[in-house]
Automatic annotation (TrEMBL):
InterPro entries: EF-hand-dom_pair, EF_Hand_1_Ca_BS, EF_hand_dom. This is EF hand domain-containing protein. It comes from Dokdonella fugitiva. Residues 42-55, 71-84 form the EF-hand domain. Keywords: Signal.
Length: 109
């Protein structure tokens, strides 16, 4: 799968997850955690506090499936809530202007 297709898939997954999110609330450090928390609740289908590859596959969350090694910081094969919270901002970041054009240009090489 090309990099631009993966990027589009990640953005689509982020939009889908954010659609189920509750209204944004501010937390003590000023960061908004409501979308990540809502996504976590939707993904942790067995409620055990960690995400397994099977749970993510069942939700068809391609972005997390393809970036599993970056999300699973301790390499135990599962993504904890803390690991997910660390991964989420990267997943939902807004690309800087022109980055898609640069990505497309680099994928043609």
């Amino acid at each position: 799968m090309s990099r631009s297709v993966r990027w589009v898939a990640m953005v689509a997954a982020a939009v889908a997850l954010c659609a189920c999110a509750a209204p944004t609330m501010r937390v003590g450090d000023g960061a908004s955690h409501a979308p990540a928390d809502a996504a976590w609740v939707a993904l942790d289908t067995d409620g055990d506090g960690v995400l397994s590859p099977g749970e993510v596959e069942g939700q068809h969350l391609v972005a997390l499936q393809e970036d599993w090694s970056n999300a699973d910081l301790d390499g135990d094969g599962r993504v904890s809530h803390a690991e997910f919270d660390a991964w989420w901002p990267w997943m939902t970041r807004v690309p800087e202007p022109g980055s898609m054009a640069r990505l497309n240009a680099s994928s043609r090489r």
